[in-house]
Amino acid sequence: MFFFTTISLSLVIFAQSARNNGWSGWNDNSFFGNQMWGGWGRDDTKCRTNQMELMKVAGSTNWKNMNEVQEFRNTCENLQNCNPRGTNGFDALEIKQMRTYCERMVFMPTKYSNCIQNVNMKNSKCWQSYQPAPGYSCFNIFGSNDCVKNDIVEVCGQEVWNNYRDDMIVLLTAAHPLCIFDRYQHL
User: Fold this and answer.
1) Which InterPro entries match (predicted)?
2) Which of 61, 90, 109 is the C-terminal boundary of a domain?
3) What pLDDT digit, counting tens, does each position of 120-144 carry?
4) Spatial contact of 92 and 84, defined as CB atoms under 8 Å apart
């Protein structure tokens, strides 16, 4: 009888303490979420997986293809539920950097989608080889011999080119602060 009473009392105490010590999600299967391993649980794993997927998609995205840009945007949206430490393992700076990265990468193809689609139809040799997000290069940001300028001016007009150029310089300056893009400002 003593053994049975001790077990029953232990279960009651355990059940009561579960409500007060962060295990409150036990019944809704979220126990292994934010409380396990000092904040590294299922939610963190999901956020890390989404972050790795973002880097994979970013590296393979053709920024001139609106379907691929949309796929990248969807991957970015999967990161919106990642919160600073205390909810899951990301710190506020890391989350801000990921969200900023997404916004920057989606900005140009979204803002200039009509122009990009029209230049895609022109199908010039310059445009085919152009990478709007050139990685870590400080040079050839507008293609070989800045040939992209001619394609955009011809198809979309001088004003669109000026805006595209200025936006790209701002984007790349933020992404690569050690690069100096002054030579492109009057292109």
Assistant:
1) T20D4.11-like_dom
2) 109
3) 999 999 999 988 765 667 888 899 9
4) yes
